[in-house]
Amino acid sequence: MKKGEAVDLVLTSADVAHGLRIRELKIELNASKAKTAQTTFTPQKTGTFTGHCSVFCGSGHGVMTFTIHVVS
Ligand SMILES: [Cu+2]
């Protein structure tokens, strides 16, 4: 992502409910079972941020992480 540039975040669940959360960037997006959720986000700071699934979704929940890089 680029600082100051809006991006559309789209989260689609193929099975149960999942959530996409990046605490440091105050992003929270929840997709219900087999549904899609969408939001627009404009990062205001650069850096590397770790996101997690925010809804307890099953045995793999603890390892559902991802990394976002925001550059200038
Ligand atoms: Cu989960």
State the end-to-end CA separation. Answer: 9 Å
The level 1 CATH classification is: Mainly Beta
Helix % is under 10%
- Computed over alpha carbons, the radius of gyration is 12 Å
Question: Could you give me the name of the CATH homologous superfamily?
Answer: Cupredoxins -  blue copper proteins
Number of helices: 0
Which structural class is indicated by helix and strand composition? mainly beta
Strand order of the largest sheet: 1-4
The major sheet is characterized as:
2 strands, antiparallel
- Please write the string of helix (H) and strand (E) elements: EEEEEE
- Count of DSSP strands: 6
- Unreliable segments of 5+ consecutive residues: none
- Could you please say which CATH topology applies here? Immunoglobulin-like
Strand composition percent: over 45%
Task: Output mean pLDDT.
Answer: 96
Number of domains: 1
Structure description:
This protein has one domain: Sandwich (Immunoglobulin-like). It starts with 6 loop residues before the first strand and ends with a strand. The mean pLDDT is 96. With 72 residues, the protein is mainly beta. The protein contains no helices and six strands. Helices cover 0% and strands 47% of the residues. Copper (II) ion binds next to loops.
Compact overview of the structure:
With 72 residues, this protein is mainly β.
